[in-house]
Design brief:
- The protein contains nine helices and six strands, in the order E-H-H-H-H-H-E-H-E-H-E-H-E-E-H.
- It is an alpha/beta fold and 217 residues long.
- It folds into two domains: 4-19 and 97-216, HAD superfamily/HAD-like (Rossmann fold, 3-Layer(aba) Sandwich); 23-95.
- It has a six-stranded parallel beta sheet with strand order 3-2-1-4-5-6, with helices on both faces.
- Helix 6 links the parallel strand 2 (113-121) and strand 3 (142-145).
- Helix 1 (22-33) packs antiparallel against helix 4, helix 2 crosses helix 3 and helix 5 (102-108) packs parallel to helix 9.
- The radius of gyration is 17 Å and the shape is globular.
- The two termini are 15 Å apart.
Length: 217
């Protein structure tokens, strides 16, 4: 296993990694879809959990076409769903638990650049991290949807913001796939993950950020 404090860049997912916010967003998907019927709300939640790390934009488009049965996505209807969802998650993101040991890990990796690459809405993420005093940890930037993780990683690698060797810290199948496509090592955090996968090929399977701190120590 590579020595963790030799990485030049650390890339973090947000939900289930930096914030204990997976449950917040799962409940928000359910409540947002409930006016379409309990069955469709449960279908959306199942799809969301199976596809952790994919943006809300993709999930609601899939919901409208594949679950509600729309022939095409109406931008007004999609916008209403996105606004309703954002309203549900706004308070939860500002009150959920922050990963224990995050500030200590930053101190232990002072020579590395840190980024957030999340499926969450980019402007929402930046506001939450600013309001919660976390933004200064991430000198490489805080990025999210509507761009995909693949697009963000590709762009930041090309620009030199992500320098190799680099590692992606995530909690979903999509995270490890995106890391692999970008040529980044991967650490799976299981403490808050909603995924049932055992990620073969991950360099480490750690319970929490605190576990990474202990490994560096």
């Amino acid at each position: 296993m590579p020595v963790l404090n030799h990485y030049k860049t650390w890339v973090f997912d947000c939900d289930g990694v930096l914030l204990d916010s997976n449950r917040v967003k799962t409940e928000a998907f359910y409540e947002t879809a409930r006016p379409y019927g309990e069955d469709k709300a449960r279908m959306l939640v199942d799809y969301h959990v199976r596809n952790g790390g994919i943006s809300r934009y993709v999930k609601f488009e899939h919901f409208l076409v594949s679950m509600v049965g729309r022939e095409e996505v109406d931008p007004a209807e999609l916008g209403e769903l996105l606004d309703r969802y954002a309203g549900y998650v706004k308070q939860g993101l500002r009150s959920c638990e922050v990963a224990a040991g995050l500030a200590e890990l930053r101190r232990n990796t002072q020579g590395a650049r840190w980024l957030v690459v999340s499926g969450g809405d980019q402007e929402e993420l930046r506001a939450v991290f600013r309001d919660r005093g976390l933004a200064d940890h991430f000198d490489g930037g805080i990025y999210g949807s509507p761009e995909t993780k693949d697009d963000i990683l590709s762009r930041e690698l090309a620009s030199g913001v992500i320098e190799q060797p680099a590692v992606f810290v995530g909690d979903s199948q999509y995270d490890i796939e995106a890391a692999s496509r970008a040529g980044l090592d991967f650490i799976f955090l299981s403490q808050w993950s909603e995924s049932g996968h055992d990620f073969q090929g991950a360099i480490a399977r750690l319970e929490s950020i605190r576990s990474i701190v202990d490994t560096l120590g």
